[in-house]
User: Fold this.
Amino acid sequence: MADWKEQSLRLWGNMEKKQKYMIIGSAILIFIAILSWSYWWGSRPDLVPLYTNMDVTDAGEVREKLKEMKIQHEIGNNGTAIMVPSKDVYRIRLDLASQGLPRGGKGFEIFDQNKFGTTDFQNKVYLLQALQGELTRTIEQMSEVEKARVHIVLPEDSLYKKNEKPATASIMLKLRPSAQLSRQQVKGIVNLVAHSIQGLKAENVTVVDNKGHVLNDQSDAEIAGAGTLTQIEMTKKVQEDLQKSVQSLLEQVLGPGKAAARVSVELNFDQRTMDRQIFEPVVDDKGIIRSLQEFNENYEGTSQAPGGPAGTTANIPGYVTNSNNAQSNYEKKEVTRNYEINETKEKIVSTPGSIKRLTVAVLVDGEISRTQQDSISRTVASAIGFNQSRGDVISVESMPFNTDLADKQRKEEEAFQKQQERSLWLKIGIAVISVLVLLYLVRMYLARRRQHEDELELEQVLTQAQAESDTQKLQELTPQEKEQLEQREAVEKFAKSKPEEVAQLIKAWLADE
Assistant:
């Protein structure tokens, strides 16, 4: 440290005055620049967005109004955003809102400024603008929609039905980054616009995005069927949910990037209806007697024994005689029982979307034992609801993963991070060195200034002593010597004040000699 200080002092001493002044001046300018920048950055107001995603017309009107109000502001985001100081943002919004800025899409407030002499045609145009503005505001309330434009064409009234043309509408949507509208949401937008305009049918509404893609193309439904896309979306949703569940489970056990899982789902979209009617006894196996009917018939006595020759004689009734009589008994019994029974009617409707079959494939990085493989298989089976009777299949295999791309990305990230750190430390080092150099130059300047002041003070002391000595000598000189000394001092003073004239005079003297 002492050698470095001595070398610096020696280098500083060998410099010329001009170089020293340049270095000191540069250091002072740098110091002043740093102080000025620090003061400007510290006094700079904290700017926040006043409005974002504005139309160019609205942005221009708001900027002109801010200029009139003499409010500091900046333009950002390619002219679609305006930044103002954070402490005044709410007050400025209220002031601009009271003046109707930004205008944006006008709604039914367009009729608040009624003017005399407005024609029917102008009223129709205002109504059309109001409808378009209100629908635009409603559609922009959706979280996926960043900006919307609605164009409506209303047909002119006609006396003849056959000459009437249907109303049409077109909607242009600018979606937010990485946002996507589902088919149901697009259908909802179409129905919203169709039911807001009298005489407008849903098939006459077209929805496009900012890239020109038609979002409600009817040909998709005609080709694929009404429910095909919905079935595909549902299958994909179930598949992604199961896959995320299995992947997160494996990463918690094996570590991130140590396992990969893929799930294939086959859903059953068949809707089945089954009717069943079951009859069962109420109590035990017999049931409860609902009605009971019994009939008993008994007969006891004598009667003629049947018999006789066959033919007509035997069938002709005659007088009863006491001959050939026999004793007879007759009994008849009938019982009728009606039992109460239970009647069960069931109608079972199977909802479509049940899982028909599951297939899961799991790959593990590195080598694993058979026990670990079986354990992973059982864990995955429990996580997804494995059903062997359904034909579900789980496959667990181990093989080394190819990590070249991941390693390359990691190295690039590490190199970028190291570069950022080096850049940061370089900036810090430059700033520290600049401050040290500035402090050193200021110190050297102060030391040189102090040394210069000491030299001036010493010179003044010597001059004063010399003056006192000259005064003492003058007192000792004769009048003639004093006169010669005064003449000599006058000549020296004249030579110092007018050196050119003295030089010419000396040249003239030399020429005369």
